[in-house]
Amino acid sequence: MGNLSLINNTFAYNQGLEENIPTKIAGAIYARVRKLLGDVEIRNSEFLCNYGALTSILALYVENSQLSLQPRVTLQNLTFVNNSYNFNYSKGCGIIITEGMGFKIMSSCKIHGNSGGIVYVCEPGMLRCSGNVLVEDTMISGNIEFTLSVMTKSFHLKNVSFVNNSCIRPSQYSVLRLMSAVSNSSFHLDQSTFLNNFGEPGVVHIDLSLLEKKAADGQVIINNTEFRGNFGRSEGVLKLLKVNRIKIQNCKFINNFGGIGSSHANVQRCLGMLIIRNTSFNQFDDSQVFESAGGLSKHVAPYLGFLTVTNSENVLMRIRNSSFASDPFSTDSIALIVVEEVRPGLLDSSVRIETPINTKLKLRNITEIYEPIIGNKQVTISTIFTTERCPEGTYSIHRGTRRRLSDKHVNCYPCPVGGNCSLPLAAQPNFWGYPENEDIVSFQLCPEGYCCLPSAHNKCFYDNNSYQHSGCQGNRTGILCGKCKQNFAEGLFTTECVRMKDCTHSWYLVVFFALTSLFALYLVRKPPVFEEVGKQLTWFIPRRKEGNNQVICSLDSTARKMAGVLAVPSYGVKNLLRNEIVLPLTNLLNFKLYANTNWKICPWPIFTPLLKTLFHLVTVMTIFFWIPVLYLLHSGLNKLCKRRPTFPPAGPYLGAVLETVLLGYSAVTGTIVRLLHCVSIQEVSRWYYDAQYVCKHQWWQQAAIAVIVLNLFPFIFTLYFISVKLYRGKISGKIFLLASILPFPYFLFVLYHYVKKKITKRADYQEIPSTAGSFHDEEHDTNSSTSIKASLLEVLCGPFTKPQDNQSNGRIYWESILIGRRFLLIVIGWWQLEHALMRSECLTILCLFYLLHHISQKPFAHSWVNVTEIVSLAALVVIGALNVGLASAGSDVSGINQRYFSILLMSEAVLLGVIPLVSVTLLILCILSQTVRMVIILWKAARARWLIFKRKYNIQLSVQGGDES
C-alpha cells in the first residue's frame, strides 16, 4: 500500500463488517495491509456516532512494516464525538493502530463523549516497538470506558487535557497507559492537565517492566502538568513502575483520591534517580463521592497520602523547592509521605510539609534488618511522615509543619466554651470565634440572628486567618458580625442586612406616624373599644361590673415582660408559639420593634445597629410628641367651632403623658442597657451589637449612664413617695407629673426643702411649696373625670387597693413596685446576658421573691385579680426553673439528653402560650356565638314579619266577611 489520505471528510452513523465475520463489526475505517510504503494522514475530518464491535472509528493493521521507510501516521484537526463500541468486548476501542509506522502524530483533536479508547500497540518479541508517538494540543473529555494506551519507545504528550473521562476496565488499563519493551525509552508529559478523571486501576500508569533486561534504562519526565480532582481506585493518580530516571518538576497535584499506597503519586522499583522539583501537593478534602463519566457508577473516594516510594534500592532521591499541604480537614494516622530505603539528602530546607489544622506531623524512621544470605545482614531504613489529630476535647489552630527533618511543635488546648472540637475547630451555633493570641481561640455569644444558625453538624465555619468574615449570616461581617457587608444596610424588623438599592420603603414612616398618633389619641380619649367589643362578643353572658380591663392588661403586660427576659438565647422556644405569638405581644406592650419577623423593611440606607437601637426610643418620644399636638389640635378645633372653653381640660392629656411614661419605661430601660452592653474582645471593650465601637469613648454611652443615674433609677423611689402624696392631696397633679418626668431634680428639690425645714425648725414650714399659688383652684373639680388629679390617679392606682383610713396607704404605690421589678429584671438580664445559667438562676430566685411578696401584700382591689397574678408569677417561676435546665448555651445538646430538653422546651411553650391560646379560643367561640346571634336575630325578624303579615291577612279576611254579611 502506498499511502492513505483522508481530508475534509465526515464519517457519521457508520458500522461495517471486519473480514466478513458478522460478529466483528468495524466502525468508520478498517484497513489491514501487508506493507505500508507511504504515510497515512487524516485531517480536518469528523467522526460522529459511529459504531463497531472492536473499533468504532479507525482500525489500522500493518503486518510487515518496512522500518527503513519509516511511514508516518498523522491525525490532525479531527473531531471524535459519541462514537461507541460493543461493551461485551473488553478489548474494544475507538482507534487502534499497530506498530507498523515509525512516527504517529495526533494534533489539535477533540475527543468527546466516546466509548473506547485509542491504542497504539506492538507485540514484544515479534516486532521492534521502536516508534514515536506525539499527542499535542488535544482535548479529551467526557469519554467512558476510555484509555489512551501506548506501547512504544518514545512518547510525548504536550498541551493535552484529560477532563471527566472514566476507565472502568480490567486492572491493566488506565485513562493514560504508557508502556515500553525496548531500551532507552523516553516518555514526556508536558503542559498537560488531568481533571476529574476516574480509573478503576488508576489514572496515569507508566510501566517499563516489559523490558526483559534486569535493569531498565528508560526515563520519564513530567513537566508543568496538573493533576486535579482525579480518582484512581487501585493505583492512585500517577503510578511509575520500573523506571530508571524520573523527573517531576513544575507540577501541581491537587485534591486527588484513591490508591492503596498513595492517592497522588506511587513510585515502584525506581532503579536510578528520582527528582521532584518545584512541585506542589495539596489536598482539601478527606473523601469525595465520585461519579464516573456517563453516570454509570458512583464511588466514595478516600484520600490516602501524597507520595509513596517502594522497592527502590540505592536510588538517588531528591525533593527540592516543593510543598506537601493538606487543608482544611482533619486527618488522623494518614501517611503523607512514605519512602523506603531512604538515603541521606532526601529533603532540604526548601521543602515544606504541612498537615491540616488541629493535627501534628510525626516522623517515623523504621529500621528493618534482614538476612537474605546467612552471614550477610542488610539494614533498610524507611521514612514515614504521618498525621496525628489532637486528642478528643482539645484543639489547635496550627498545622504540623516540617522543613527538612525539623518540625514545629503543635500544642493542643482544651476546647473553649462555644467551640466545637469534634473536627477542626468550629463555632457552636450563634457563637463567633476570634484569636486571643497566636495559640488560643475564644468564642463570644453573638446577638441573636447575627451569627450562623445551627446546621446538621451543630457547628459553624471558623477560619482563623479570616475570622472577621467567618461564621456570620444574613450578609453580615466584621467583629462579632456587627456590621453589614458593603452595599448593604440594616433592616428594621430583621437582623439580616438589606441591599441598599432595596431601601425604598419610605411608606413605613407614614404608617409609623399614623399608628403612633392613633395610639396617642387612644391614650387621651380612652374610648371603651375593648369593653364594647367584649359586650358584643359575649352577648349571651350576664353583665358584670366593668373596669377590670386595664387590670388584665397590666397583669399580662407584666408577665410577658418578665418571660421575655427569662428566655435563654440559643435554646429558647423555637416554634410558632414563641416566635409568632408570645414575642410579638411582649414587644408590642414594651414599645419595641420585633426583630424576628424577617420583614426586610428599610426606609433609607442609613440604618446601623446603633440607629436601629435608638429607634426604640423614637417610638416613645413620638407618642410624647403627639400628645401636645393633639391638645393643640383640640384647642384649635374648639376655637374654630367657637366652643367654650377654648382650651380643653388638661387632665386626659396629662394622664396620657403619665401612661406613656409608665408603659415606655421598659422600652427606655431596655434600650439604655442595650447601649451600655459591652464585651471584651482581644482585650478591647467593644459594644456588643456593633463591635466597631470601642466602649467608654462614645457620647451616647455617656448619655445612657446619665439617663440611668438621673432618671430611670430615681424614678422608682420618686414614684413610690409621690403616689401617696398625690392621693392625699399634698402635691398637685402638675408637680406629680413634673416629678415623674424629672425625678432626680425633684429629689434634690425635696431634699433642699427638707434640710431647710430642719435648719429653720419651723413646724408650719411648707416642705413642698405649691406652684402657681392656687393648688385648690387647680383641683377644684376633683370628682370630675377630666380633672388632672383624677386622670393621674386613674392611671396610677386605679386597680390597686385604696387606703381605708388615714393611717394606711393601701397599695396605691404599687405601680412603683412593678416599675422596680421591671428595672431589676432588665438589669440582671443584661448583666448576666453571656452567662445563661447564672442569669436563669438569678431571675428565677427574683421571680420567686416577687411571688412571695405578692402573696403577702395582695395589692389589687379584687381578689380574683390577685389570684390571677399569683398564677402568672408562679408560671414565671416555673419557666425560670425550666430555663436553668436549658441554660447550656455553648454546649452540645445531643444523645439521650435531647429528649429531656425537648420536654423542657415544650413545657415552656405551653406556659407562655396559655393566655394567647385561651384568648384565641375565646375569640373563636365568640365569633361563632355572634354567628348564632345573627341567625337568631334574622329568625326573629322573619318571624315578626310573618306574624305581622298573618295579622294583616286575618284582618282583611274579617273585614271581607263583615262586608258580605
TrEMBL record:
Alphabetical keyword list: Membrane, Transmembrane, Transmembrane helix
Presence of the UniProt keyword Transmembrane helix in the record: yes
TM region positions: 506-524, 614-633, 653-676, 703-723, 735-755, 867-889, 909-942
Keyword S-adenosyl-L-methionine: no
Signal peptide: none
Matching PANTHER family: G PROTEIN-COUPLED RECEPTOR-RELATED, OUTER MEMBRANE PROTEIN PMPC-RELATED
Protein name per the record: Right handed beta helix domain-containing protein
Organism expressing this protein natively: Pocillopora damicornis
